[in-house]
UniProtKB/TrEMBL annotation:
Domain of life: Bacteria
Pfam families, A to Z: DUF2939
InterPro entries documented for this protein: DUF2939
Native species: Alcanivorax borkumensis (strain ATCC 700651 / DSM 11573 / NCIMB 13689 / SK2)
Region (Disordered): 108-130
Protein name listed in UniProt: DUF2939 domain-containing protein
Amino acid sequence: MSKGKVALGIALGLFAIYVVAAPFITVYQMKSAAENYDGEALSEHIEFPSVRQSLKDQMNVMFAKQMTEDEEMKDNPFAVLGAAFAGVMVDKMVDAYVTPAGITQLMAGEKPQPGAGQGDDSTGSAERNPWEDASMSYESFDKFVVKAKGADGGDGKFVLRRQGIGWKLTEIIIPLE
């Protein structure tokens, strides 16, 4: 076998290892950034518009479900008005919480503070370690999911998607029930 074929085989093997390990490396970097309250480093791994939209969609579905299941709301003429205001409130609330500092606090096991600025370095200790019982797995070639226990015992999911040869957090799925 020629040296060129051996080198090519080694290079392809290393690339395959990187492709498989890349989301695990990204999650480790995100975890380290959250533990160090480094919102700037963490934000490099997050696609904020996508995360915001996924949370808005989940919250709006939850409010709509509550409105249709609540017997008092079904016959209330102001229910439609309330639903409209709820949608606007959800949008504003998600925009206020889903910031580099807010995601950092969430991933460090704390409750995010609304409107926390990027330069806002919290020094308080984490209430819990959400990474303690976390599980990580591929759901498809370009989708990687980290499942973590929430404070209420429900499973939250951090969904990362392949972007080029790297990975970014694109969704946070919260247990709403």
